[in-house]
RNA sequence: GAUUCCUUAGCUCAGCCGGUUAGAGCAUCUGACUUUUAAUCAGAGGGUCCUGGGUUCGAUCCCCAGAGGGGUCACCA
């Protein structure tokens, strides 16, 4: 492997540090007393700016900038909270005859990206920047590759930004080091999940884990990843959903269960799809989809407030401000189509629907049944227009093989999707718990499979057996966590809300 | 999967309608500098111009194929 000039210099510096008798990768705990942000926030200055309440602080982090001026130098140290400036003067850190600690180690052998720890007192420079006057510094870890060096000027303009999406996503460790502003996306993601978990715990639901490796992939319409178990000598699938397992747990007698599930779908990738993604699913016994709508909007309102760190329920996305405060608008699918197209699909048979599609310039083909035609009209003419959180209810039965038939409307099921900013965020229904009906639905799916639909759901005899033992009426929901994070952080690409989005293999040989 | 655009130094980018030795800023190296902050000043080094073919006297540039990435569409959440 060819090494660049800068890498060779750093390796040489590494050896020279060892020659000074200093371990470049020390093992011992380093006792940090303050984060950079705390120092910048809590320092209170005396009149002369030379002394503060912070008479001795110890911080650690990467050296991100160095400004050396002969016998003194400034540097920026970056830790998890941000950056703080340090001031190093030769005679303070090397008071004796031997000035090697400053002249050799600090000035020559220290490279941008190296980890150091410093101890000193806090003061304010002539130009007004809070800084640590270093009296002791410790080498904590060498960086052998040069980091990109984005810089921000007086006007806030960023120069040399590290902004190539490929490099940022492949080397997230570099990205988040030099673009720490993106850390906030992941902090929000973490806060969102924590908030949702605490809300669901408050409902006395139990967090569970169910198999990712499955012999039958059920619970959604999608192509799975296939793998193989050597000892069992059988093919297995990575789960596309955990729905059927969570419902087995309702059969088992838990009143409510939830799981933040990594699911895997072997389909196209684009700005809203990654092969593995996170879905929160939860199921609650003795509830229906009406209850679930109430719960969903309460959960989201609570979670958005928590993520925003206050009472704010709004999020700005481009030109739109989305308000997660409930209650959300509820609209049946038929009414939504009436509202946005003026077409009445309520009593339309398949031929009538085809005529409507033609009028609306919706593309159709012969394989589409009634449900699919309605779904196409909705997808083409309604979905993108629903910006504020909206529950679309009462879906055609054909596309919902796990959903209970509507209690009063023929041909429909008790299902809703939550649409926000024109995108589906959640999908929920009154769960089908009639095992005889469920078996018929699976048989319908098998017919689709026989016609070549590779996304149809396979028959799951064990799941049917569970239902035959009896499942209480249950409401269930799946909420797309990645997409919700995209909304809350204003990101247009799913890659920006995943630490390590899927990418093709990189050739590192060269 | 289809289509389109992109790939030049560690980073961000110029450039070459095909022509000696491929440029800049930051970063790096050498030197100066004890309150700087995109530190400054003086000097220097650094390149498989994504890869492989082809056309040509000559290709980083044109053509073909491939790799990787971005956008759009299709499938889907």
From TrEMBL:
Q: Which InterPro entries match?
A: Aa-tRNA-synt_II, aa-tRNA-synth_II, aa-tRNA-synth_II/BPL/LPL, Lys-tRNA-ligase_II, Lys-tRNA-ligase_II_N, Lys-tRNA-synth_II_C, NA-bd_OB-fold, NA-bd_OB_tRNA
At which positions is Mg(2+) 1 bound? 417, 424
Q: Where does Mg(2+) 2 bind?
A: 424
Q: What is its main location?
A: cytoplasm
Gene3D superfamilies, per this entry? Bira Bifunctional Protein, Domain 2, Nucleic acid-binding proteins
The cofactors it requires, by name, are: Mg(2+)
Q: Which UniProt keywords apply?
A: Aminoacyl-tRNA synthetase, ATP-binding, Cytoplasm, Ligase, Magnesium, Metal-binding, Nucleotide-binding, Protein biosynthesis
Residues in domain Aminoacyl-transfer RNA synthetases class-II family profile?
186-501
Q: How is the cofactor bound?
A: Binds 3 Mg(2+) ions per subunit.
Q: Does the keyword DNA-binding apply?
A: no
**Localization per Swiss-Prot or TrEMBL:** Cytoplasm
- The enzyme class is ligase
State any single GO MF term: lysine-tRNA ligase activity
Pfam families cross-referenced by the UniProt entry: tRNA-synt_2, tRNA_anti-codon
> What EC number(s) does this enzyme carry?
6.1.1.6
From the UniProt record, list the reaction(s) this protein catalyses: tRNA(Lys) + L-lysine + ATP = L-lysyl-tRNA(Lys) + AMP + diphosphate
Task: Give the family from UniProt.
Answer: Belongs to the class-II aminoacyl-tRNA synthetase family.
Could you give the subunit structure recorded for this chain? Homodimer.
Q: Which NCBIfam families match?
A: lysS_bact, PRK00484.1
Query: What PANTHER family does the record tag this protein with?
Result: LYSINE--TRNA LIGASE, CHLOROPLASTIC_MITOCHONDRIAL, LYSYL-TRNA SYNTHETASE
- Name recorded for this polypeptide: Lysine--tRNA ligase
């Amino acid at each position: 492997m060819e090494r660049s000039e800068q890498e060779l210099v750093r390796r040489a510096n590494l050896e020279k540090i060892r020659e000074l008798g200093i371990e470049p990768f020390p093992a011992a705990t380093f006792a940090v007393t303050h984060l950079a942000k705390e120092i910048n926030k809590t320092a209170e200055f005396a009149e002369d700016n030379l002394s503060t309440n912070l008479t001795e602080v110890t911080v650690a982090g990467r050296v991100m900038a160095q400004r050396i001026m002969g016998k003194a130098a400034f540097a920026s140290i970056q830790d998890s909270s941000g950056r703080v400036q340090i001031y190093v003067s030769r005679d303070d850190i090397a008071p004796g005859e031997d000035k090697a600690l400053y002249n050799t180690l600090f000035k020559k052998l220290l490279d941008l990206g190296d980890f150091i720890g410093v101890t000193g007192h806090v003061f304010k420079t002539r130009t007004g920047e809070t800084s640590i006057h270093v009296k002791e510094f410790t080498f904590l870890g060498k960086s052998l590759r040069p980091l990109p060096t984005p810089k921000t000027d007086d006007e806030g303009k960023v120069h040399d930004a590290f902004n190539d999406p490929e490099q940022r996503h492949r080397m997230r460790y570099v990205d988040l080091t030099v673009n720490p502003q993106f850390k906030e996306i992941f902090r929000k993601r973490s806060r969102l999940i924590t908030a949702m978990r605490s809300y669901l715990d408050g409902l006395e639901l139990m967090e569970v884990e169910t198999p990712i490796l499955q012999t039958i992939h059920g619970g959604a319409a999608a192509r799975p990843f296939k793998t193989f178990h050597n000892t069992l000598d059988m093919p297995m699938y990575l789960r596309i959903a955990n729905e059927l397992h969570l419902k087995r747990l309702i059969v088992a007698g838990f009143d409510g269960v939830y799981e933040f599930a990594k699911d895997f779908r072997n389909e196209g990738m684009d700005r809203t799809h990654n092969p593995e993604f996170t879905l929160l699913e939860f199921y609650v016994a003795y509830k229906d989809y009406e209850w679930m709508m109430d719960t969903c909007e309460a959960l989201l309102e609570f979670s958005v407030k928590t993520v925003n760190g206050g009472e704010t329920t709004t999020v700005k996305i481009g030109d739109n401000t989305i308000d997660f405060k409930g209650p959300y608008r509820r609209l049946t699918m038929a009414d939504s189509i009436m509202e946005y197209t003026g077409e009445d699909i309520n009593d339309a048979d398949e031929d009538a629907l085809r005529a409507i599609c033609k009028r609306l310039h919706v593309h159709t083909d012969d394989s589409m049944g009634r449900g699919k035609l309605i779904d196409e009209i909705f997808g083409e003419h309604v979905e993108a227009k629903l910006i504020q959180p909206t529950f679309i209810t009462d879906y055609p039965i054909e596309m919902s093989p796990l959903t209970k038939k509507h209690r009063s409307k023929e041909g429909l099921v008790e299902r809703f999707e939550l649409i926000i900013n024109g995108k589906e965020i959640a999908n929920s229904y009154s769960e089908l718990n009639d095992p005889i009906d469920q078996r018929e639905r699976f048989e319908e799916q098998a017919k689709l499979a026989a016609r070549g639909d590779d996304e149809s759901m396979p028959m799951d005899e064990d799941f049917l057996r569970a239902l035959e033992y009896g499942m209480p009426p249950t409401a269930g929901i799946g909420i797309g966590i990645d997409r919700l994070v995209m909304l809350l952080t204003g990101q247009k690409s799913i890659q920006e809300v995943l630490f390590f989005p899927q990418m093709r293999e990189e050739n590192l040989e060269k």
